[in-house]
Amino acid sequence: MKNSLQSICNQYEVITAKFGYLPLLFIRLILAYGFLGPATMKWNDIHAVGDWFGTLGIPAPHFNAYLAASTESVGVVLLLLGLGTRYIAIPLIIVMLVAIRTAHWGNGFEAGNNGFEIPLYYIIMLLTLISFGAGKISLDAWLSSKFKVKPAAINKSMLSH
Question: Nearest-CA neighbor of 77 among 151, 139, 146?
């Protein structure tokens, strides 16, 4: 009984290891889709977004509206391609932190009340991409294999302390 349970566990680990790249791909695709709507909305009426940013107390509101819209737009493309994933995640996290502080914090946690729940989930997913990279199905992986560059990654010894 113990051997058969161990055998099942070993088979499960082999199978899940083969598809371990899929969560990173899905995270990238979900984030790209999630940033697409806000980026498009900002570009559709960037002046009104700048005015709104001003009412939120964001300094240089029109400049920051362009900066946020550009960051989100570039983020969508890079996340879809899996290119520079660890790098674009940092400015996207900053956008999310500003959004939480200025637009969502006062509404509490729940997404249904326009709270900070969804931006927080985005930050967690972006931190995952910073930690583990874009995954096997990405231009980052293709470029690192083509140029024989091993990307930095968190190894098990870093997690055990």
Answer: 139
Helix, strand, coil fractions of the chain, as percent rounded to 5: 80, 0, 20
Contact 93, 126 (CB under 8 A): yes
Q: What pTM was computed for the model?
A: 0.86
Q: Count the neighbouring beta carbons within 10 Å of the beta carbon of residue 6.
A: 10
Question: How far is 6 from 19, CA to CA, in rounded Å?
Answer: 20
Give the pLDDT of the chain (161 residues) as one tens digit per residue. 678 888 898 888 888 888 888 999 999 999 999 999 999 999 999 999 999 999 999 999 999 999 999 999 999 999 999 999 999 999 999 999 999 999 999 999 999 999 999 999 999 999 999 999 999 999 999 999 888 776 555 555 545 54
C-alpha closest to that of 129 among 100, 146, 151: 151
- Distance, in Å, from the CA atom of 18 to the CA atom of 30, rounded to the nearest integer, reads 21
Instruction: Write down the residue that tokens 């969560």 correspond to.
Output: 23
Question: Would you say 61 and 88 are in contact if contact means Cβ atoms under 8 Å apart?
Answer: no
Look up residue 47 and give its two tokens. 């002046």
